[in-house]
Amino acid sequence: MMLTHTKLRDKFAQFWKTKSHKEIPPIPLVPKEDPTTLFTGSGMQQLVPYLLGETHPLGKRLYNIQRGIRTQDIDEVGDNRHTTFFEMMGNWSLGDYFKKEQIVWCWDFLTKEIGLSKSNLFISVFAGTKFIPRDTESISIWKSLGTPQSKIFYYGPDKNWWSRAGIPDNMPVGEPGGITSEVFYEFTQVPHNSKFGPKCHPNCDCGRFLEICNNVFMQYKKEKDGSFSELPNKNVDFGGGLERILAAANENPDVFKIDVLFPIIQKVETLTGKKYGKKFDDTRSMRILSDHIRSAVMLAADGVIPSNKDQGYFLRRLLRRMVRFGKNLGFDKEITVNLVPIVVEIFKKVYKDLPSKQKIIQSLFETEEIKFRNTLNNAQHEVEKFLSRPFSGNKLEEKYAQLAFDLYQSMGYPVEMFIEDVRQRKINLDINKFHTLYKHTFSKHQAVSKEGADKKFKGGLADNSEKTIRYHTATHLLHQALFDVLGNQVRQEGSNITSDRLRFDFSAPKKMSGSELKKVEAIINKKIAEALDVWYKIVPKTEAYKIGARAFFKEKYPEKVKVYFVGGSISSPQTAYSKEFCGGPHVKNTKEIGLVHILKYEKIGSTLYRIYAK
Prior knowledge:
By secondary structure, the chain is of the alpha+beta class. It is about 40% helix and about 20% strand. It has helices at about 5-15, 50, 100-115, 135-145, 240-250, 260-270, 280-300, 310-330, 335-345, 355-385, 395-410, 415-425, 430-455, 465-485, 515-530, 540-545; strands at about 20-25, 60-70, 85-95, 120-125, 150-155, 160-165, 175-185, 210-220, 230-240, 490-495, 500-505, 535-540, 560-565, 580, 600-605, 610-614. The strands form 3 sheets. Strands 1, 2, 3, 4, 5, 6, 7, 8 and 9 form a 9-stranded mixed sheet that branches.
């Protein structure tokens, strides 16, 4: 019997509950408190402060299923395993149990609860470096569970190491990191492709092996001389791909055959009359449509709208690619409108707010689709004019590459469509040379764009430097000062904090006057001068609301929360000047912050405003 996604979710939750783990709510796809990234990309993203030593309100044993988006995989979608939207099943130990318990429980979940055949499971472990030894402890544990040596593979830090900075050599002094031990499923029905190497192995890209989960053992800290010392509190961070585990459980190497994607493909088959798996190009297009509509619906449900910037641009790109690949299938109208209801039907029991948002999402997508179809018509008119002109000589590919890029840049016209237009006219174009020239042009512009994006998104609470912590605490004072001056309609919308300055985004019914802005600054510095203690308390969520703690983001909060107070005392927390749901870290007293000066105040939306301060 096929394992369904709802059954797998239930099995995962029940298993970790029996191990005394508490469920933490997943954060939105657009993380409000982390401007260092466009989208949530892992289950541990919200747990960084706690992995670095903060106390989590729900304790030391946690689990959840987190939605994520991989923007870097958009061009890979079309094979049997890559998707842009994914769900990661995770569990964590924050200084509690470590390798022995985690590996045994991971094995029990996969083989006993899910029923995966042990003969199909392979393991990877850390091979060791000059400063960090081979992970013999994990090897011993895996062997004790019956895993033969022939199914244990050793890889270096490029495969079996985790830190926020990447491999050990790239880590700054004081940064924590750790070795990993991954589990792979072998699909014996998939033959090895020798173009990926003479011998197949778990990290081979031929498609025979699929990584289904990863155990991260965070146990080291980088020292000044490049060596590593052990952390006093060792953590476990486990991640298992829901889609990939489902594929393994159902013995199907094609993740698009599982029930979070295949109903969409079946609808596409009905609408187009094409058959999945019959022709390569049709199959690839169907996979892209099913992946992109699932990702697009999830993003729209989280409040993202199509635009030319940031998250909105990625959503727009998904929808436009759907129109393009739908066209390849002869599907020339209302692609997104027809597929949204299928996504809602698949996930309505998991994400219960989807049905109420269905009509809004369909209307949003329909408008975007119509707009892009008009763009395509205009672009094709330009292509017709250009291709009707006689060109020849050595510069042919260069001229065509420039036109293709200009059409993509100005109108969003896909280069693949341009190539199809050229082929239909039987123009003698060296496609390989064209691609080389196009990629060269594209990469130059992409490098400039990436540099700008890196500057924009660098910062947040990605480091724990003293300045960053001071600025983070200052945002609490700024937030409350805005309430004092503008009233209770103020709502925090995000922040970006670096060691150089803080940036604070908020919504308010009106723009502040110059005198009001000065008043906000004066209040902040007054509270700093009063040398107020900064402290936290873990309390039931209902109690936190009763004492007036502010919770300003859309995600659900667990039953117990961490509240940071500025001023007041444990015996009278309601008298604190500032009370906010927050994970930390913070200074211990406001006098540590120093004088705060507001540098800039600007309007960034109809009711959205931004403050820069240092």
